[in-house]
Each structure stands twice: as C-alpha cells, then as structure tokens.
Amino acid sequence: MEKGEFKELIELLMKNDLICKKLNEIKLNTRKKLKAYLGVNLKNEYCFVLKLDKKSRFLSKDIDVLYEFLPKEINFRYKKKILILNGPICSKAKEKINDWKIINGAG
C-alpha cells in the first residue's frame, strides 16, 4: 500500500471518529477493487475495515462480497465492521447490513 493512500484512509477514519491504534492491511486474493484492514481502536475493540472502490450503486447482491472477505476464524471478536464506499448504496442493502458502519469515501 502506498503511504499517501494509507494516510487518506487514516484521515477518513479519524473524520468519522474512528481512531485505530493498530491497523494492518490484509492481502486479498481477488481481482475486485477492494482492500481489507484489521485494526484495534482506542477502546481495544477489534475493527474490520473494508474499502470498496465501486462507481456503481452498492446492491443487496454485493453484500455477499462483504461476508466473503470477513475473517471467519475471528469473526466473533470484531465489534466494529466498517465499509468505505465511493458510490451510492441501495436502501435495501443498507438495511441488511445495519451492523456495519458505512462511510462515504468519495471525494
């Protein structure tokens, strides 16, 4: 990951009151434009951050992508699940993932 890209991610999380004292990128074996990070916030809660670069609308069928990359072996420990999207999100998809914090990463 490039330094500038990581700095932008940290600033975006800070702007949304999410400060991680530890944040590591997970290498994903995929051709999709997404990046995943595991971190620990200041309250010692485990965070899973998924950044999806998609210009089109995020639909209900795209929810499977979220859970496909969520670490299954440590899923129960992760109190915070954060989705960073560059495009709009369908209202039905938003209802289905109400346990995720959704951040608009555009612009």
Automatic annotation (TrEMBL):
This is Uncharacterized protein. It comes from Nautilia profundicola (strain ATCC BAA-1463 / DSM 18972 / AmH).
